[in-house]
Amino acid sequence: MIRVFEKNKQLHVDGKSDMAKLIVVSLSLQPILSLAVRYNLSPDETAHKLSGYFRMLGADLVLDMVVADDFALLENQREFVERYRAAEEAANSSEFLPMLASSCPGWVCYAEKTHGSLVIPHIATTKSPQQIMGSLIKDHLARELGRTPDSIYHVTLMPCYDKKLEASREDFTNQQLHTRDVDCVITAIELEQLLQRDNQSLASMDSVQLDFPWSKTLPSNSALVSHQGSGSGGYADLIFLHAARELFGNSHPDLQYKSLRNPDFREVILEQDGRILLRFAIANGFRNIQNLVQKMKRGKSSYHYVEVMACPSGCLNGGAQVRPQDGSSPRELTMRLEAVYESLQKQVPEENHTVQELYSTWLEGAHSDKCVAMLHTKYHSVEKMTTALNIKW
Ligand code: SF4
Question: Which residues sit with their C-beta closer than 6 Å to ligand 1?
Answer without folding.
Answer: 104, 106, 159-160, 162, 232, 309-311, 314-315, 318
